[in-house]
Amino acid sequence: MSMKIDKVLILGSGALKIGEAGEFDYSGTQALKALKEEGIYTILINPNIATVQTSKEIADKVYFLPLTLFFIVSVIEKEKPKGILLSFGGQTALNCGIQLFKEGIIEKYKIKILGTPIKSIINSEDRNLFRNKLTKLNIKTAKSFIGHSMDDAVSYSLEIGFPIIIRSAYTLGGLGSGFAKNINDLKKIVKKAFSYSSQIIIEEYLEGWKEIEYEIVRDNFDNCIAVCNMENFDPIGIHTGESIVVAPSQTLTNSEYYNLRKLAIYIARNFNIIGECNVQFALSPNSEDYRVIEVNARLSRSSALASKATGYPLAFVAAKLSLGYGLHELKNYVTKNTSAFFEPALDYVVCKIPRWDLKKFYGVSNKIGSSMKSVGEVMAIGGSFEESLQKGIRMLDIGMQGFINININKKKFGSTRLLKESLKKPTDQRILFLEKALEEGVSIKEIHDLTKIDPWFLYQLDNIFQTKKKIDHFDNWREIPDELLIKAKKEGFSDMQIASIFFYKKNNQYNIISHLEQEIREYRKEKNIIPYVRQIDTLASEYPAFTNYLYLTYHAIQHDIIYEKDEKSVITLGSGVYRIGSSVEFDWCCVNALNTIKKESYRSIMINYNPETVSTDFDVCDRLYFEELTLERVLDIIELEEPKGTIVSMGGQIPNNLVFKLYEKKVKILGTSPISIDKVENRYKFSNAMDYLKIGQPRWKELSDFDTIYKFVKEVDFPILVRPSYVLSGADMNVISNKEELQHYLSEKISISPEYPLVITEFIRNAKEIELDAVSQSGKILYYAISEHVEFAGVHSGDATLVYPPHNIYLSTLKEIIRISKKISKYFNISGPFNIQFLSKDNEVKVIECNLRASRSFPFVSKVSHFNMIELATQVILGKKKNQIEPNFFITNFLGVKASQFSFSRLQDADPILGVDMSSTGEVGCLGNTFDEALLKSMLSVGYTIPKKNILISGGPIVSKLDLLEVVKLLHRKGYILFATEGTNHFLSNNGIPSIRVHWPNVKKYSNVLELIQNRKLDLIINIPKNLSKSELDNDYAIRRYAVDFNIPLLTNARLAKAFIQAFCNLSMDQLLIKAWNEYI
């Protein structure tokens, strides 16, 4: 190593958002470990309190501060780092780095940018410089122009010819991009694009071309390797983050592969990349013609996938190279006995598949294209494309059994004509449409013509479909020949999939499909038709290797490892795919559990399949199974490992859903009994337990006919909370405010029957929501943390703004919460982590729900309290006797605020309103000496800005207007110009506050609110709905949507708006303290 740098600043990526998610926790954590190994003092700025990289043992100093110029410069002034890493925090970190350079901060403080030089980063990010540089190198790029105005866009589009693609510069995940077929399309997209960047790119649309990616690593000695190449299943036009991605590429000729590899390496050398970069190509399907789409001079989503797909620790190696090492000087950290200067060889196929949660959003378009909408992704490993793909589809956890889905009714897809139209315009249901097309007899050629998906992939899908047809030929599953059953398993069919083929036949004798699934499993095992464990050794088994990186496949004849079977191993089930409601916070829980298992002298074993996570990193556990979290696969691994037991309480809802099935199979579940978990998960059993314990809960009933529904509603009165009983996690939940809305819901939304009843719950207005996170041992609470929501109940707990320690709760309320929690813990004999959500109104406390697992707030309360609750919980789960620890949050002199990150800008047409169904994609947590300070830092960390001048207020119901009155007076005193819709304008006038009246969207007069938004005349919009009924939300939907589309901060909750206004009026930026986490004690 040639560099002598002893102190390095690393910029994180902030809250998880669509386009910039958990992959940067993985890459940042690896980078920090690499620097620590060199004895370098590390300083991390990242407000994402749920991440692994912000844990105590990773960085030397952590600042939970916004990733903006003001705060980064303040940390630089205080810490005086010698070097800075920009490549490990996504686009957020890269943009901050470019700003630091352009503002002269890097030069002023004599900071060395480690890794790729800043000018190379700018050359890759600025589309004009990028295109010019590649043109000078005689490398083809898409025909394009750079625009800075609407006139530019119109002129250039006419020169290129429609269709075209428009992109914003310096953005991630295709934000601000879209396809235009005509001038009208163009104008709509360009207006939005300019709200995210001052520079746009107008580019030819290479319809039907393949998208190919290469991950390139280069050192400062000019050693250069291609670590992985990947091929998109979908053609150009669908963002790589929205596409199925396959590694290694499957349809390239040898010549195509090596030509593109040569070009990627040539680009990396000429851009002077030091570390890692990603090069994306468009490749003509009819010739070897190509275009370079973009170069990411940093670790990316694709880098994380490539690293997990190959076993090559890209981020770790890139961090070492940024310090001056050469590739030849580094060892392969996975195999331990080869050099890092090699290109991995793969003897398996990897599929990355995105997951969407579009049903969570009212009004959103389900079309997929050039802008990312997916919230998570899975990675499956198999011996063939078919096996890998089917495993990956199941990993999405959306009810699909693989490519073949007998369990899903596809009649909703309509006629063959409508089906073909859907294939032409891709949506999040793309895989189901492809399956249906084969069922309908649409030819491979026609499917290719409609979708532009390479025929090779379509033929593999047809292989799966033909195998299903052969199985379907038999009346009884026992008639399936062994060779056909082996073929099906090699093509990724699960036992449940095969069971479904027979369960849905007319002559089926089984009442419960899981019984049939288990019979098939036992029959298979008798025939020795079983999966074998393979190692990922990065060398395609060419050299002996000692890796802990494993997958199961039917394309093998023996296990690659020898099992001890000494009951000294502990299996932890991971969180699976990130989705709204389950994200990086559960990965933090899993990683901390694995660390504790190791400390307690057990072998730590992880089952997970998410390439974005730290828990699937090569050095986190003793054995990693990159595998499905299905009953079939988890049982396969447990039978091989014969562990001391299995931990199900760290990974969120997926492991929780497996508990009782595993228990029925005699699997030893560590921690709280599966019987107790079942009692809490079952609504009736839990409600009866609360009645027995004389603990209050909102009134509720499960009803199956209109008469009893109206009778119960009359009893509890409006508003009410309604949802189908068969839907989990807040999906399809609605707050209904009046009889007309209820009638509309019952007639339009759902069908009700004794088989599918409706759950109606009393909705308590203006109630405070409070949470308790705790760890118990044998029913006795050892440690607890109580936090309160800023918003009243009615906003999902995952979207709410959380304050810890609580600062606005009566002592008597706190005591009652602790009393109730102790009763619940004792009754269910809890051993491990749990979470209870409470309602409090007029000093009366009621229980909403209880989860006998770690919750999403565990990282937040653990880090604010400086007490690792997961470490304690894991020790308890392992049977270690622990003493009770009394929390000290009543005497603390600081507090933390957790704020939610929303990604509505990515979700075209979605209504950005908060309600009972969760919609946030990430979170931050910031610390402060006061509530105002912590809240303001948190709000700035999720993208809010302090308004400069003009604020629009649409105050909603009278109770909200009254709630906001004092802070609106404060805004007026501070000199802000207030705009208000008609009712709010009248209310403010009556209270002596001047405001400019603006007209509603449907009134065509001067000062129409939408014109003000389009012309960017507003700095903050407060829009409070009167209630959450459809008719009310529709009234001012346009205001909220325009605010998001034109990138203007929007608040839709009166209590949060009040808190934010108080914070930025009471504190200037200079008053916000620049303190590291360890300085808050």
Automatic annotation (TrEMBL):
<keyword id="KW-0028">Amino-acid biosynthesis</keyword>
<keyword id="KW-0677">Repeat</keyword>
<dbReference type="Pfam" id="PF25596">
    <property type="entry name" value="CPSase_L_D1"/>
</dbReference>
<keyword id="KW-0665">Pyrimidine biosynthesis</keyword>
<dbReference type="InterPro" id="IPR016185">
    <property type="entry name" value="PreATP-grasp_dom_sf"/>
</dbReference>
<feature type="domain" description="ATP-grasp">
    <location>
        <begin position="131"/>
        <end position="323"/>
    </location>
</feature>
<keyword id="KW-0460">Magnesium</keyword>
<dbReference type="InterPro" id="IPR005480">
    <property type="entry name" value="CPSase_lsu_oligo"/>
</dbReference>
<dbReference type="Pfam" id="PF02787">
    <property type="entry name" value="CPSase_L_D3"/>
</dbReference>
<keyword id="KW-0464">Manganese</keyword>
<dbReference type="GO" id="GO:0005524">
    <property type="term" value="F:ATP binding"/>
</dbReference>
<dbReference type="InterPro" id="IPR006275">
    <property type="entry name" value="CPSase_lsu"/>
</dbReference>
<dbReference type="InterPro" id="IPR036914">
    <property type="entry name" value="MGS-like_dom_sf"/>
</dbReference>
<dbReference type="GO" id="GO:0006541">
    <property type="term" value="P:glutamine metabolic process"/>
</dbReference>
<keyword id="KW-0436">Ligase</keyword>
<dbReference type="Pfam" id="PF02786">
    <property type="entry name" value="CPSase_L_D2"/>
</dbReference>
<dbReference type="GO" id="GO:0004087">
    <property type="term" value="F:carbamoyl-phosphate synthase (ammonia) activity"/>
</dbReference>
<dbReference type="InterPro" id="IPR058047">
    <property type="entry name" value="CPSase_preATP-grasp"/>
</dbReference>
<dbReference type="InterPro" id="IPR013815">
    <property type="entry name" value="ATP_grasp_subdomain_1"/>
</dbReference>
<dbReference type="InterPro" id="IPR011607">
    <property type="entry name" value="MGS-like_dom"/>
</dbReference>
<dbReference type="InterPro" id="IPR005479">
    <property type="entry name" value="CPAse_ATP-bd"/>
</dbReference>
<keyword id="KW-0067">ATP-binding</keyword>
<dbReference type="GO" id="GO:0046872">
    <property type="term" value="F:metal ion binding"/>
</dbReference>
<feature type="domain" description="MGS-like">
    <location>
        <begin position="944"/>
        <end position="1081"/>
    </location>
</feature>
<dbReference type="GO" id="GO:0004088">
    <property type="term" value="F:carbamoyl-phosphate synthase (glutamine-hydrolyzing) activity"/>
</dbReference>
<protein>
    <submittedName>
        <fullName>Carbamoyl-phosphate synthate large chain</fullName>
    </submittedName>
</protein>
<dbReference type="InterPro" id="IPR005483">
    <property type="entry name" value="CPSase_dom"/>
</dbReference>
<keyword id="KW-0547">Nucleotide-binding</keyword>
<feature type="domain" description="ATP-grasp">
    <location>
        <begin position="687"/>
        <end position="878"/>
    </location>
</feature>
<dbReference type="InterPro" id="IPR036897">
    <property type="entry name" value="CarbamoylP_synth_lsu_oligo_sf"/>
</dbReference>
<dbReference type="Pfam" id="PF02142">
    <property type="entry name" value="MGS"/>
</dbReference>
<comment type="pathway">
    <text>Amino-acid biosynthesis; L-arginine biosynthesis.</text>
</comment>
<dbReference type="InterPro" id="IPR011761">
    <property type="entry name" value="ATP-grasp"/>
</dbReference>
<comment type="similarity">
    <text>Belongs to the CarB family.</text>
</comment>
<dbReference type="GO" id="GO:0006221">
    <property type="term" value="P:pyrimidine nucleotide biosynthetic process"/>
</dbReference>
<keyword id="KW-0479">Metal-binding</keyword>
<dbReference type="GO" id="GO:0005737">
    <property type="term" value="C:cytoplasm"/>
</dbReference>
<dbReference type="GO" id="GO:0006526">
    <property type="term" value="P:L-arginine biosynthetic process"/>
</dbReference>
<keyword id="KW-0055">Arginine biosynthesis</keyword>
